[in-house]
Design a protein that fits this description.
Elements (H helix, E strand, L loop, with lengths): L70 E5 L3 H9 L4 E5 L3 H10 L3 E6 L2 E3 L5 E8 L2 H5 L10 E6 L4 H11 L5 E6 L2 H9 L7 E5 L3 H15 L8 E21 L8 E7 L2 E6 L14 E6 L3 E4 L3 E4 L8 E5 L5 E22 L2 H18 L5 H9 L8 E6 L5 E3 L11 E3 L8 E6 L4 E2 L2 E2 L8
Helix pairs in contact: 1-6, 5-6
GO molecular function, one term: 3-dehydroquinate synthase activity
Protein name: 3-dehydroquinate synthase domain-containing protein
Pfam families: DHQS, DHQS_2nd
């Protein structure tokens, strides 16, 4: 399971400047916890074959990462948890039927959607039933859950014992149904299990917590997963120099996911420019295909990680996440399963970007059209337009000298083309893909400061 952020968080204050908060609020008062009853309490116990293939989608569907349609309800009595949730766009809160006072108090502070539990059902403020609650602790109870048995749009399940297997069974049972199934979760880690069950996951979670950090961690998880819907802008770079430099410690990154032709990791000696290094998924007469592996480069190199961050290859270890990117800039997250560091002969590859060619080819109006169509993000477009068209910045990467190590070529529409160039065949004038970004980094996070790197 991917690790969630553990950064310390200061207490969240009640914001008055956000439109989701009411302007006529008073100070949140401390209220007694409601008494839990049996009916309302939910507990959670040869040579390398150069395939002429355009970049293709991953064999693994990215539907598990499509979280924009996933729903989150919050079950809490902590006003700071409420504030943190509303600030992050989650405004549906569950209360016990005895806690109408707390719901009224919070409704004076923020625009929330209160729901109330009563006798195994959940009702809205107008008394309309919106969900049915089921506690599942045995196989027989699980079998009672099926779409035809309910006429209400939502089902909230409380898995008292097992979690993963029942959740997977429920996902399978309700696929294609209009019923949204929620699972009660006491932590972001539990919520992640439910949201990823059988890849597609349940339709939502009820996060039952009294800790602000749980809300922040779950939102950070959503942000990282939703990141894959965007496409990175990749730039065409021209190789200027290739030469052997001697021995060094290089890193093979083995992922818990399979990669397809066109996919790899973004790696570079400098954060300002990362090369798309291809995976070892292509067939060879001399060695078996390893579609889970990227022979990424030496220990000092940067690699792209979720959230626009970078990490040194030497810092990667089992359980960490990296960004897998294809020729078109489509990206997804993948978990590192193993890292191998071995001493091997290295080759230095240097490249430059000729933006004057890019600008003369597309023209500024076309670039603006690209921006409006979200091919480039605003930040990417700003960076592109600010770079001098005659910029002589050198971008470099060191890689192991081996036929199975390759850089990805630019993607030219739907035309048949080669996907990669092995470093053993690489020469000046060849074109490869590069990711341009800010060069200054602090603990992998891009910062604005003066920096010179050679």
């Amino acid at each position: 399971m991917a690790s969630l952020s553990s950064a310390s968080v200061s207490l969240v204050r009640t914001p008055t400047h956000l439109p989701c908060f009411r302007s006529n609020h008073g100070k949140v008062q401390s209220l007694n916890r409601y008494s839990k009853t049996k009916t309302t309490h939910l507990s959670i116990n040869s040579s390398l074959r150069m395939c002429s293939i355009a970049a293709s989608d991953s064999p693994l569907s990215t539907s598990m990462y499509e979280l924009s349609s996933k729903k989150v309800w919050i079950w809490t009595e902590n006003s700071q948890v409420m504030t943190a949730a509303v600030e992050r766009g989650w405004d549906t809160f569950i209360f016990s039927s005895q806690n109408q006072g707390l719901a009224n108090e919070w409704s004076k502070i923020a625009l929330i959607d209160p729901l109330f539990i009563k006798e195994g059902e959940i009702f809205d403020n107008a008394g309309e039933r919106v969900a049915t609650i089921f506690q599942v602790s045995t196989p027989s109870e699980l079998k009672k859950l099926h779409p035809e048995a309910h006429h209400v749009g939502n089902v909230v399940i409380d898995l008292l014992d097992w979690q993963v297997i029942p959740a997977e069974n429920i996902v399978a049972e309700f696929q294609g149904s209009k019923t949204t199934v929620f699972a009660v979760s006491k932590s972001p880690a539990e919520a992640q299990l439910f949201l990823e069950a059988l890849e597609h996951g349940l339709g939502g979670v009820v996060l039952k917590v009294e800790d602000v950090k749980a809300v922040l961690d779950l939102k950070e998880y959503f942000n990282r997963r939703n990141e894959v819907h965007n496409r990175l802008s990749l730039t065409k770079a021209t190789i200027t120099q290739v030469h052997a430099v001697g021995m060094g410690d290089r890193v093979c990154v083995d992922l818990c996911s399979l990669m397809r032709p066109g996919e790899g990791l973004l790696v570079g000696s400098f954060a300002r420019g990362l090369f798309l290094v291809h995976s070892e998924c292509l067939e060879s007469s001399y060695i078996a295909s390893r579609p889970f592996r990227v022979n990424a480069g030496p220990v000092h190199a940067y690699v792209a990680t979720p959230g626009g961050k970078t990490s040194y290859l030497s810092e990667l270890k089992a359980g960490k996440e990296v960004m897998v990117v294809d020729q078109t800039g489509k990206m997804r997250t993948a978990i590192v399963g193993r890292v191998k560091i071995e001493t091997r002969p290295l080759i230095l590859v240097e490249a430059k970007v000729c933006l004057s060619h890019t600008l003369s080819t597309f023209g500024f109006p076309t670039i603006r059209m690209f921006i409006s169509n979200s091919i480039f993000s605003t930040r990417d477009a700003t960076l592109l337009l600010q770079i001098d068209a005659n910029d002589q910045t050198v971008y470099s990467i060191l890689l192991q000298t081996a036929e199975t190590v390759a850089l990805v070529c630019p993607h030219e529409g739907n035309r048949t083309q080669k996907t990669v160039i092995p470093v053993t065949s690489l020469k000046a004038g060849d074109e490869v893909l590069l990711r341009l970004q800010g060069g200054a980094r602090h603990t992998g996070i891009e910062i604005k400061e003066f920096i010179v790197e050679n």
